[in-house]
Each structure stands twice: as C-alpha cells, then as structure tokens.
Amino acid sequence: MAQSNGRIIDKLIKKWAQFRCRRPQTESANSTLVKLLKAAKATRFGREFGFDQIIASENIYQSFCERLPVIDYAGWVAWLADLNPHLEEGPRKLIHQSWPGVIDTFCLSSGTSSGRTKYVPYSKEMIRINQKAAVDLIARLVLAGYPLLSKSLYMSGCTNLERNRHGVLAGDMSAITKFLAPAIAKRFTLPPQNIAAIDDWSERLNALVELCKGPQSIHLLSGIPVWQLTLLEQLNAEDPAYLDQFRFLIHGGMSITPYRQRIESLLPDDAQLIEVYAASEIGIAAFQVPGEQGMRFFNQYQVFYEFEDENGQILPIQSIQADIAYNLIISSCAGLWRYRIGDQLVFKTTDPLVLDRVQRDKTMSTFDEKVTEFECQTVMQQMSPSMADYSVGPDIENRRHVWFLLTDELLSEEWIQKLDHYLRLQNQDYDDYRTDGRINHPTFKCVNNRKNYLETIGRAEGGQRKFPRLLSSDEVSKLLKTPF
Question: Do 62 and 129 have their domain in common?
Fold first, then answer.
C-alpha cells in the first residue's frame, strides 16, 4: 500500500511540474514596465519623475527614458539623502519612497567604489517573486529527475539575523532568502536554523559535513561554487561514498569555471550542474533549464531590463544582440529605477533569450569577496612605499590573494600586512572572509621584468605595457610558476 501511495504522489508531483513549466509567459517587457510604473506612480519617486505622465504618453518607453536618468548606487543614495539618510547609522525603513508601502528588508552587498557596504532594498513583492522563480526552477528539476520530497542543502550566508533599532532586517541575500523561506520549503531544505545561524564559517562547514553524512540522502546542493567545492572536498577526504548522494548542484553568484573540473571529478557521473543568475537587486533573474546550455531569462519576475553597450547607448531588451557584452540596467518591484547594478551580460541567443555568461570585469570575486579595482587602488595609495605598477589575483590552491609588484625595493612582511589591513577596512566581505579563514593571508611577488611578466599572461600584444590591476586565477597560476 505504501509503495502504491508513493507512486501516486510521484505522478501528482510530475503533473504539477509539467503544468507549471507549460505556463506561457503572459507578460511582454513593455507590459512589465507599465505594471511597475502604475504600482509606483503615487510614491515620492513616482510623483517626482512624473509616472502618471509617462503612462499617459503615446510612447511610454521613450517618455520613461527622457524623464528618468540612469543611476548607480551612489545616485540612489544621493536621491534618498534629503529624506532618509539611512546609510550613516544602518538602514531605516523606506516608507512609500520609490515603491508603495514599507520596505524593511535590505540585502547587503559590497564591492562598490562608493562605500564599504551597499544596502539594496528587498520589498515584499521582490521576496515573493524570488520565491516564485525558485519554485519554477524546482519544477524544471523535477522533470529532470529530482525527487521533490527529498532533502536539499542550501549553503547560504549566516542566518543569525536580527532587526536593528529601526526595525530593519539586513543580511546577505542568500541568508535573507533562507531566513524568510516559507515553512513548507523549510521542511525539505537543510540546514536547520541552528546550523544556518552559526557565525563561524569553519564550525558551520563542519556541521554541514555532518549533515551530509547523516542517514537521509541529500540529492541537491545549492550555493556558491567555491564553498560547494570546499564541502565536497571535505566529504571526499572522510569517505568518497558520501558524494554518491548528490544528483543536482545549483551554482551561481560567481563563475564556476575555475572549479568546474574539480567539482565534476568529485560528483557522480550522472550528477547535473545547473547555473543560476541571481543578484541582490533582482533576485533570481535567469536559470539553466536542465539539458540546455546557458540560462533562460523570463519576463514574469517583475523586473524591467535595459542594456548599455560599450558606446553608452541604452537599448531595450528587444534590440540587443548575441555575443555582445552589455551593462545591465534594471527597474524593479523593489523600487530601483534605471539602476545600473554593475554586471555585464553576454547572451547566447536572443530568441529565446538565453544568457551565456555574466562578467564583472572590474571585480575580483573568485572567493566571493567582490574586491574592486577601485578598492585596490585606494589601499595602494595609502601604502609607503606605494607601487605604481601592480596586479592582484586569486591563488585558488592556497585560498589567498597574490600581489605582483614591479619594484626593485626589498619589501617586508609588515608591508603586506598593512596592505591587507587597509583592504579589510575597505571591503566588508573580504574582512569577514579573512576573519573566519575562508581567505588566507595574502602574499606578494616582486617583478623586475615588465615585458616577461605581461607576456606570461598574454597581455603584451599590440605594444600593451600597462599592468592589469586584476588577474584571473589562471594568470596567477602561470605567474607563480614563472621566475622574474
């Protein structure tokens, strides 16, 4: 009888998944924009920028572009400053500012040149839409063989979150998502709150390893590739048999390229890797459909997309081309309008819209630290001696940064310690990861031959003699093997 009931449940789950995946996209990009404008027209932002007039115009998108400037985080903060200077003492609630109602939840994100930490508004609508996108992805996985009633492990940030004195909840996006997950999702998703809330990374990792060694199989592992690999390697060191349970690995937040070969070597042969494009400003925007290459974009997640080409021209979604890098600009149900989030997107195809890759050209994030070129420049200017020619990149094997310096000077260990201290002051994520040991102490290597250095990393072509500020892990690996 139990076996028969199990088969019935499986059939019902598959029918649900088929129904959810067959649903047509009912919204065009323009209808999404109109819906967002109508929702926010009575807010302070909507009144200031004439949303009523935009909606009433003959060409809504043209009027939208004419009335609203493109902004970045600094522009967003400047707009809020006269009424809600929340960044000086931690975030405050946004009440009917750029989205109707109260926004009392913020995703923390670092890596901006304008400050140590970004507070990205996360409205109730955005939370709901993000959960909807996650369910849509799970439905696709069910059709690819994922048993919905099995356990999944979500490697989020620490969920030890509390509201500040203004009643605001703020945290890493993955931690916020885990913390606010509906009760039904918590029944099937690990870890439990007592583990997810452990502050110390090493202690939390050990607890996650013990979960994976438990009697109940975990078929799905979700998180950032570098931390997924850390977990898999620790399990493999204890007993490779523990790895046989994993059938799906959902990854996002950073490129998996430096880790793919090692991750795939640890997982069972039939395990599937599924990529997700998510950001604090947009939640889950695109995900890989099992069996396909690239990540599908969908219109029903209440975000209006624009794209900026290398010449600064702003294009609507229907005008973009494949194989071209575009800066992403979004308007969303969290109240961000024509907001440049800092990502560059390259599409595989435009019909259907399939994302090939996400580029963050001026950000180093191999360990999810999101260290920017601007931050490196800032800390170097504080150093004595300060180096005009330098590069920095990730040494994956030793989980550290390596600074390559064009100099004949003899530098002490104290010099690199001071530089590391200044970078920790600049970047919250880097400081956190250095504190809990996820990123080890940096090192440096002096270079006395510019030409050989640049030729080693393939950047000397065309007479180019400028030191690249940020290096890839492959470039660092080559340089560490090369005498200078």
Answer: yes
CATH of the domain at 395: 3.30.300
Residue 69 has pLDDT above 90, yes or no: yes
The DSSP symbol for 99 reads S
Residues 166-179 pLDDT 10s: 899 988 888 899 88
Strand partners, 51: none
d(CA 56, CA 45): 17
Residues 380 and 359 sit within 8 Å (Cβ to Cβ): no
CATH code for position 205: 3.40.50.12780
Sign of the alpha-carbon torsion through 420, 425, 430, 436: positive
User: Which residue reads 């800390």 in tokens?
Assistant: 379
Q: Distance from CA of residue 447 to its chain's centroid?
A: 34
Q: Are residues 203 and 339 in the same domain?
A: yes
Distance between CA atoms of residues 312 and 35, nearest Å: 27
DSSP string for 87-122: GGSS---EESSSSSSEE-EEEEE---TT-S-EEEE-
Lowest mean pLDDT among 316-320, 356-360, 368-372: 356-360
Residue after which a domain boundary falls, among 361, 391, 423: 361
